[in-house]
Every structure is written in C-alpha cells, then in structure tokens.
Design goal:
Strand order of the largest sheet: 1-2
Number of strands: 12
Number of helices: 21
Distance between the termini: 51 Å
Low-confidence stretches: 314-332, 453-561, 570-603, 609-676
Largest sheet: 2 strands, antiparallel
Length: about 675
C-alpha cells in the first residue's frame, strides 16, 4: 500500500559475478593507482603507459617452441601465428628475421588433406575456413611478394565454392556448421584476394541479414542470440558486400552502445555478461563498420576494392601495385592528440575503451588478458591491441586528402599502428594486398579453369620432383632428387609431401583423405591405390616387411624438415607400426612399444635405427622428451649451448617473464575464442 517500501531485489548469479568483476577492476581504475605504478603502467607524471617491450617479448616467445600443453591447440597453429604477428605489427616490433620461416610454415598448412586450396590448422590437416582466414591474414601481415604469392587463389576459390551452402551462408568445413563467422571468413579472404565473384556472392547478403535479432545485434545463425563476435562477422561481411545499409543500423548501434560497460569501460560480448578484453576489437570495430556504412562506404580499402587508386593518387593508371603504391602516403602524417572523454568520431566512448585496456588488460610481465584475475594469452593480446588501435585511430576516410587525428590516452608512445576494421590486419598491409591481388585474373571461369590449378611461376623446389639438391645448410649430404619436399607446388602424383596439391579422393572415401588413405598413390611413401574402408582407422599398407619402416623413415625426414616450423608444439614422437605418433610425457627409459592387443612388442632392428635417429632430434628435460624446433641463431649470454638438429649448437628458447603461479598452459583459454 501507500508508504510501503519495495523489498530489495535478491542478488542473482550474474549480478554477483558482475559485482566481483567490478571489485577486481576498481583498484586499477583509480586515477593514481599504486598497483599500476608498481608494474610501470603509470608514469611518474601519472600518465598511462603501454608496456610495449614486455608485450613484444611475450608475443615473440610464441614463434619458437611452445609449452607441451599447447598440443590441444595443434589445429590452431595458423591462428597462433596470426595472433602473434598481428600483435607485433601493431606494436611495430615485427620479427622480420622470422618471416621466411613463417611463410614456409604456412605453405605446409595449405590443402594437404581434403579438398583444394584451403588451409588447415597445421600440416596435413583438413582445410577449414577459420584457419584459412588466419593463415591468409598472417601472410598479408608478412606482406612480401613471396608471402602473398603463397596463396593458391584458384584452389582457394574452389574450396570456398565447395563450402557454399544453399542457405547462402558458408560451412566452416565439409559437413561443418553454417554460420556468420564462416560466411565472413570466406567473404573477407575472397575480397582480399580478388576472388569475390558474382557466383560466390549469390544469396550471401540475404543469409547475413536473416541473422540480425530483435536486439539489434547479429547472432551466429538465424534465431540465435546476438553475440559480439558473430555481430562483427556479419557487419564486416555486409560492408564488404556494400549491403550493410540494408540492415537496421539504428538497432545495431543501439545494441552496440549498450554493450560498453559503465564502470569498466570495456565491452561485454552479450547482454548480461561480463567485460572481456577481446571485445575491445569485436565490438569496437563494429562501431567503425557502422560509420563506414553510414558514410556510403567511403573508406580507403573499399575504394581499392572497387578499383580506385591508392590514397594520394588521382588516377589508378599511375599505380604500380604492392607496397610501392603506398609510398605516396608516407608524407601524410597523422596528428596525435591527447584523448578526452569526447574524443573520436565513433559513437562509443573511445577514451573509456583505451582506459580499460591500459589499466585492466595489461599483464604485468607482458601480454594482455581478458580482465583482472585472468592469465595472458596470445588471443587476448592480439584483440586487446587491435581494439586499442581502433579506439586510438577511429575510422579513416579518403575525403579531405588525409587521415583524422589519432586520440591517444596516456603517453604519446602508446600510439599503435592503424588496423583495418574490415580485416584486422594493419591498414597499410591490407591496402598493399588488395593492390597486389587485384592485378591477377579473376572471375568464375578463370578461377575454375584447368590452367588455374598451378600457381603462377611454380617451379620444382631443389631436391624435389627430379631436381637435384645441393648440400644442406648445416653440412648435411645432398638430398636425392627422387625425394619430394614439403611445400612443392608442381603437379605431380598427389601425396602429402606436395603441400599445395589436393589429393584425388579415393573411391569410397568421402572427400579424399590424408596421406595414408589411398588416392593416386606415391611409391616414395609406400602408398597404394587401394582405398581404406575406414578412413579414421587407416594405416600404411601391409606390403613388404620394409615398406612401413621406409615410410616411417621418410616421415622422420619430414620431422627434421618441419622442426623449423613456427609454433612447433613440444612433443615426443615414436615409431609404432611404421607410423610416427604424438605421445606426450613419454619416459625416456621406456624402451618397448605395444603391439596388437596391448602385448609388448620389441621394435625391429630397422625401427631401432630409426628410433635412434629420432632420439637425436630430442633433448631431455626432466622426465620428458621434447622436439626441439630450429630457433634463430645467435649468442645467448649466460646460458650454455644445447645440442640441436644435425649437431648444430642452438640457443635456448626465448626467456619469458613469468609472474607467480604462471601456468605452463597459459593461452589455452583462447581455444574457443579463436574459432570465432
């Protein structure tokens, strides 16, 4: 009745979690937080500081040997490479000495198992749209002609068209889910590599528009809850297709502004969820996409995609292509202003977003995180830095002959390189890639012709497909001319050693198979034309007694070849029935292998010899055997050299600053996030 007071609402699980999150952030959000001063994130002049060198050191550490716990992310190796390279490029601390190794590593991820053109998460893995997106963006970040030409555009187009679904969306892989992220990854890479044909685009816009919800955001599929990651994917794809104006942009913007947290300043991914540093990009970049759509798609990258000249050129006929075409913009400097609560052209609070990243997302020893109390990982490091770049630079426009002022919170040295809101690679790398690929043939007929199978300029690698090879760089003997190498792009009988050659599907095996599932066959690997009745249990053929051992020896050579890959997971591989299998935590004293039915089986003399060669590739750390990948050569003061591949002294892996209780499996929490 009148005069009575309403009973206070009982706390819910989510409200209590929100209170706990705000309490964890509160000490860091104080204007002169002693915690920030203690870690160096607040200067003596009380200005926020981006711990640039620590972040660069942490990210660089992932390009060598990863901790054993990362074996669960073996299918995400292309993602790890992309997260690290993009983060370092924004910090302007690029590992250029590793770029050749990056390109060779990613070559081996392309079309080695099922279907043409796409990339898997690692060597001989099934092509998938998510790692394809990550691998191509990593190559674009490298930015060299060799990196850009490593993409088999014709094979990629065929893979995309195989993934196209009658609904208009795209499946992530054969028989995979159809959603907005799969559709965006296909559209983004197709646009970037100039294979976005009319046949490709058919029905795509209608599918994406059907994913917008009553809240105003986009869900992963029609009828799903609006979600920050899927919302970004749908909006970016619609902008690339020049169709975002057909969505309800007012509802989209209303949903976005309500995702920025009032206390923390960062973004949540969905209604009634907690703040998360990765949404600094997913939600922050969506504001830039809305601005581009409202401006009539006036944006430097859109202009290049539409065939216009680079910024600063009056005529596309003057363009030479590649990074050289962008040199004209070097004189157009970007003014840097101190950020204020009203800074920036976007409808979000760009000041508060920078404040959250610098105060709450920086891990004291380097790397960035979800929120206080969480551990750092490569995924959050990449997307926190990307969101910070968006908040600093806003959205660019070619109108006015220059770039808008960057608004930087804290020290001027906090300024990051600009990132593309469409692709999330550095803006200059995206523009250079568009210029490079738009000179190449396009159109459905050209991309599906037989002549398009072999990349332009393909030639046998030394020591592969009949080409004699010189002696190895480390004094190893020359490789026989009959032994194929990973990464070969010449169309020879298909096998796993031809990394860009799709294998012919074996009869009865849907979509093809891995190296041991039949197909055309390869005598060098002991393969036959007989298909395996059960691909999941396929084994090397039981031919002559030496066949499996010969196959294992070739695979062992492959391990030596792959030991220089970027992001090799420390794991022991042992010879078992002629196959090298991953086996973590194998005790060095274990000398027998299990045969059929689990009975102990003594390895043959030939396998023992192979095992000895394999053990030469390992070093003992405690009670585990770990594969030591090739690291950059150079002195490492204070540490003795360790015996590495072919007896070459190698420096130990980069030392990583660690806090108390830092777990070896840090970064594993990003596994699900990386598949957005």
């Amino acid at each position: 009745g009148p005069g009575t007071m309403a009973a206070p609402e009982a706390p819910t699980t989510t409200s209590m979690q929100q209170d706990e999150c705000e309490a964890a952030c509160a000490p860091l959000l104080l204007g002169t937080s002693p915690l920030l001063k203690g870690i160096g994130a607040l200067s003596e002049a009380d200005e926020l500081v981006l711990l640039r060198e620590r972040h660069a050191l942490y990210l660089t550490s992932g390009l060598g040997r990863l901790p054993g716990g990362f074996v669960s992310l073996d299918a995400s190796r292309s993602w790890i490479v992309y997260w690290i390279l993009h983060g370092l490029s924004l910090l302007e601390a690029e590992p250029v000495d590793d770029y050749d190794r990056v390109v060779e590593t990613l070559r081996r991820f392309q079309a080695t198992a099922v279907g043409p053109g796409g990339f898997g998460g690692g060597p001989q893995q099934v092509p998938h749209l998510a790692p394809t997106y990550a691998a191509v963006l990593a190559l674009v970040t490298v930015g060299t002609a060799e990196a850009l030409d490593a993409v088999d555009r014709a094979g990629l187009y065929k893979f995309f068209m195989e993934m196209k679904h009658p609904s208009g969306g795209f499946s992530m892989q054969h028989d995979g889910e159809v959603d907005a992220r799969g559709t965006y990854t296909a559209v983004a890479i197709a646009a970037l590599t100039n294979i976005l044909t009319e046949e490709f685009k058919e029905g795509v816009v209608e599918y994406l528009l059907s994913c917008q919800t009553y809240e105003g955001g986009f869900g992963g599929e029609p009828g799903n809850e609006a979600h920050g990651g899927y919302n970004y994917c749908a909006m970016a794809a619609l902008v690339l297709l020049r169709a975002a104006h057909r969505a309800d942009l007012d509802a989209q913007e209303f949903w976005l502004v309500n995702r920025q947290m009032e206390t923390e300043g960062g973004f949540q991914g969905r209604t009634n969820k907690l703040v998360d540093g990765c949404y600094s990009f997913w939600q922050g970049a969506a504001f830039a996409l809305v601005a581009i759509a409202r401006a009539g798609y006036v944006h430097p990258e859109i202009r290049l995609l539409d065939g216009g000249p680079p910024e600063g050129m009056a005529d596309a006929a003057d363009e030479e292509g590649g990074m050289d075409a962008l040199d004209v913009d070097d004189e157009v400097t970007e003014a840097v202003d101190a950020a204020t609560p009203s800074s920036g052209p976007l409808s979000m609070n760009q000041f508060k977003l920078q404040d959250y990243v610098l105060r709450c997302a920086q891990f004291p020893q380097g790397g960035l995180r979800d929120k206080p109390g969480k551990h750092r990982d490569f995924y959050h490091s990449c997307y926190c830095l990307s969101g910070l770049a968006v908040a600093q630079h806003g959205v660019r426009s070619p109108q006015g002959g220059g770039r808008p002022h960057a608004a930087v919170l804290g020290e001027v040295g906090n300024l990051l390189a600009d990132t593309s809101p469409l692709f999330n690679v550095r803006a200059d790398r995206a523009e250079a890639a568009i210029l490079h690929y738009r000179r190449l043939p396009t159109g459905h007929a050209a991309l599906t012709s037989d002549d398009s199978d072999t990349p332009a300029g393909a030639a046998p690698r030394p020591g592969c497909c009949g080409q004699a090879a010189p002696g190895g760089a480390r004094g190893t003997p020359p490789r026989p001319a009959t032994s194929p190498l990973p990464g070969c792009v010449v169309r020879k009988p298909s096998c796993s050693c031809h990394a860009t050659t799709p294998r012919k599907p074996a009869e009865g095996v849907r979509g093809g198979g891995v190296a041991r599932m039949g197909g055309e066959g390869c005598a060098a690997h002991g393969l036959t034309d007989k298909p395996s009745p059960n691909p999941s249990r396929a084994r090397p053929p039981n031919a002559a007694s030496g066949t499996r051992a010969a196959s294992a020896e070739h695979a062992l050579d492959g391990i030596a070849e792959h030991a220089g890959d970027v992001g090799v997971v420390a794991a022991h591989r042992h010879v078992h029935r002629g196959v090298l299998r991953p086996q973590l935590g194998v005790d060095e004293r274990r000398g027998r292998h299990r045969g059929r039915g689990g009975a102990p089986r003594r390895a043959s003399a030939r396998e023992d010899g192979l095992q000895g060669r394999l053990d030469a590739l390992h070093v003992v750390r405690g009670q585990r055997l770990e594969l030591l990948p090739e690291l950059r050569q150079g002195p490492h003061p204070g540490r003795g050299a360790r015996l590495g591949l072919a007896g070459v002294p190698l420096p130990p892996r980069a030392e990583v600053l660690r806090g108390d209780g830092q777990r070896a499996h840090e970064g594993l929490g990003a596994a699900r996030e990386g598949e957005r």
